[in-house]
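name: query_chain
kind: protein
chains: 1
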Amino acid sequence: MTGALRLGPIDDADGALEPGAGQSVAQLAILHLIGNSIFLISLGCLYYCVRSKWIRWAAYIEGFHLYEHLMLTVTAYFLGKPVGLSTLFGGAGMIGSREFAVGYRVSWHFAMNLLPMPFAMIGLMEHMRSRAIPTQAVLLPRNR
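structure:
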């Protein structure tokens, strides 16, 4: 099948094997889909238990990130290269060098992996703070 995702080792433009060539593109894409799905399901469960705008925004961001991985996987399979926002829709190599394309994609994914966690933590901390007993309301026994 022409243009289909190669299930063998990953080659660069020169035909030389890249580091970690024993892993295939399909395996990495599926691994990322599973990991991001687990995180989104976890955020959904947290939002079910703790209704917070912060946790809802974390779920939105992670949902977009999961959609990006789904898009990268599907386009890699059908077009032979991943196309998505993190690859500048397949044109990152046209803007700069290969190092720029890799750096942009890694930075984009770093931000998308980093953002939801503090949002969820803020929402959870606000929930815990609202349920805490104020210190002035606690009556301590006096020593006589």
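note: The first helix runs from residue 25 to 49.
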